[in-house]
Design a protein that fits this description.
Layout (H helix, E strand, L loop, with lengths): L3 H20 L3 E7 L15 H9 L1 H5 L5 E5 L2 H14 L4 E3 L4 H11 L4 E6 L4 H7 L16 E7 L6 E6 L7 H11 L4 E4 L12 E6 L4 E6 L4
Parallel strand pairs: 1-4, 2-3, 2-4
Antiparallel strand pairs: 1-5, 5-6, 7-8, 8-9
Length: 225
């Protein structure tokens, strides 16, 4: 009877060591913005034709990360963006509130340790999510008309999280229409309300007074998610 005790103790020690090793694995979070949307003025806008094409073309790239968990916001355009890769992987995205970036980060750090997680989120909330995942270094600014990028957050078992920036390699930012908007904004002192709705491309959207003579802008930038 007593001869079994050492064996049980050894087995327990092995299981404990295994659990420690599994709990100490690094976590990778792949972040991307939803693809091009139909309208900047409709908060519930779906993907444009260009956005749907991007979602399809993203499949090989996103699949290469071998994610085991997918997250999208409660706005349908993020779910549309992940739908093709979710179908390929046989995974159902977990839906979380757009307003809960910090809560999402806490859930990933608590429940998805040691996994590769794919998150489709919103432009104006990406930096907040990255910070909540523990990144303390610089977070790059990305213009509203930019869709062709990925952020990869590496969360080690020990130490600080780091941010890696990559391009999707599908298209260059749509600079032409945005530049036209900027030129119009600088055309003189007058109230302006500008939004780019054509071809599902995003652009900077400002409401305010533009005084080109003094080079001064009055008003606030309105983020386009």
């Amino acid at each position: 009877m007593t001869s079994r005790h050492p064996r049980h103790g050894f087995l327990f020690a092995c299981l404990l060591a295994l659990s420690v090793c599994l709990g100490a694995q690094d976590t990778t979070v792949v972040l991307l913005r939803h693809a091009e949307r139909q309208s900047l003025l409709d908060s519930n806008s779906l993907l444009s034709e260009a956005g749907l094409r991007r979602a399809q073309h993203l499949v090989p790239l996103l699949e290469s990360f071998r994610p085991t968990v997918l997250y999208a916001s409660d706005l349908e355009r993020t779910q549309q963006t992940l739908a093709p890769v979710a179908a390929r992987l046989g995974l159902k995205p977990l839906i979380r509130s757009k307003g809960g970036s910090e809560a999402l980060a806490a859930e990933i750090l608590r429940d998805q340790r040691g996994k590769t997680v794919l998150v489709c989120w919103h432009h104006d909330l990406m930096a907040r999510l990255v910070r909540a995942l523990g990144v303390k270094g610089p977070v790059p600014y990305l213009s509203f008309d930019s869709y062709d990028w990925l952020w990869i957050v590496h969360v080690p078992a020990k130490g600080e999280a780091t941010l890696e920036e990559r391009t999707q390699g599908l298209s260059a930012p749509a600079a032409g229409p945005v530049s036209q908007c900027r030129q119009h904004l600088l055309g003189g002192a007058k109230p302006v309300v500008l939004g780019l709705l054509e071809q599902g491309q995003a652009a900077e959207f400002r409401v305010g007074e533009v005084d080109a003579a003094e080079g001064r802008r009055q008003g606030e930038e309105v983020p386009i998610p």
